[in-house]
DNA sequence: ATGAAAGCGCTAACAC
DNA sequence: GTGTTAGCGCTTTCAT
């Protein structure tokens, strides 16, 4: 009966192999200048006993834990789950684990998480800040990569975000190509800065295309299906039926479709709906949701890579990934020539 | 300019407060028999410097990391994301962090994760095993709580799962109450044991209700929307159009709805569809998916609690949570009296 | 009530 | 190439 691997220390391996602690340690970390004999001996003992290095002790010396944190608003939201998946996949190959924190759009919760995270001594963190409260974390000079639209507010930090401006233009041009005018807009209200950036992109697009956007109809709502439904219902109650709805995220777009159905309005014949995210749930509705897709997995993937660079002492820059259009069934066919893409 | 909290040690606090290392440590861990003066002094210094205990060093001594692992097939699958959310919420309150591993239905991946997890010296793990390979982990006598249907294969381990048998009966009774006969079944094939349990429950129900189930039509498919669509398409190609489809999970049920639509079949008038999971995406389809819902968040929540009990040295038992029916739009109205519930 | 000292399991100088 | 030794930051006897 050999010792439980759990309780074996490097000292036991040393004794069993007739070598010293340090030599065993060297073999285990693949240091150069080790005799074949030592390597073999250690390998034997390890195989025999199932010994595993205690990573905690290693961490204590090296200061690195092999764990990074991912702080997102809601793991149960498909978009964020996809981002997590991307980061996760990238991390596995590096032998790194990911600690996921859902802040649930709650700044207090987020703060708790941030504290928990520096306490856990993670090597770095990928963060989508709910609000602007990054001050607490900045002082710990922990390697950080920002994701999402708040990146623009911290110009000196590494970040990866999707190109909202390009995405909005993509969507608005597509709407225009169906001969629809400016749509009404549904934006989330627990992601203020994201909404602002979205609307700003709309105005910029209008300016470039010489479209009058003085009478923009915008409704806020919670960042979920019910929020989208309620938001469109409010618009329907107070305005003429719009020709098109552009939601700043897919969940709200799905809600908008429900609101239309409830009113007996047909989509896309009466009202066109355009989403923003590209979540899988948009494929299963009738009609399927046409949407501007953010590269969610890629965002997670690139953010992780950037973070690793930063951890390794590199600079890690800012990255903007383009959006693409998932053409499905909630827009009418095109009637105009597609516009040339907007360039800055 | 005070020292960076990151580099401050308990020794610095000791020096600054004129106390000894040990006393400071005692104050910090709330030990009894400390003078008010010492408490005050330490509190001051901590407030002043922002000192934080190094959890890694603590872990090294105490053997506990304050981190638990959650191993699930796919974080991007809404059902599992919900489970994760439940566990997460429970963990926050306990000051515990959760390491999430997606095995992607891949036993090799899972094995990697399991190793990574014992290396990280987590305090315990909540696991939904892809296949039967739990041998590797059992030897580490790490506190473990199983979730999902495989729990039944490890009768001596703590577990929480949903009551498949009751859920299946619930669904089948509901189908029967609409005057529909036995449905065709769509089950996932990368979750063998779950599928078996599901079908077994079907047979048990048939026996209890005196229904002939000799000619059961069952089709396997990947555990996702496309898998469900393809599976039903295969059935449609080789059999008469069934009156009802019962999918072992919601994603496949959604796929089934797509297959029907593609064939020009109406749901629920031509074919009824019943799902199993209760994911949010089922609410947004037209018609919305009627489904037997597993208590996903609660599963995560209870699993975490059980795990904590086990970590604290308790036994932690086995727990089975009932399913409920989300009555939505993919079944025709009831025509028969509801059957009395099945009892064992 | 507090201090001194001995480790937790490992790595990294520093010797030889 | 390998062994010796001194910590990493903390908790916990054991004294006092």
From TrEMBL, chains A, B:
Keywords: DNA-binding, Transcription, Transcription regulation. SMART domains: HTH_LACI (SM00354). Residues 8-62 form the HTH lacI-type domain. InterPro entries: HTH_LacI (IPR000843), LacI/GalR-like_sensor (IPR046335), Lambda_DNA-bd_dom_sf (IPR010982), Peripla_BP_I (IPR028082). It comes from the Bacteria. One of its GO terms (molecular function) is transcription cis-regulatory region binding. It holds the Pfam family Peripla_BP_3. SUPFAM superfamilies: lambda repressor-like DNA-binding domains (SSF47413), Periplasmic binding protein-like I (SSF53822). The keyword DNA-binding applies. The keyword DNA-binding applies. CDD domains: HTH_LacI (cd01392), PBP1_LacI_sugar_binding-like (cd06267). This is Ribose operon repressor.
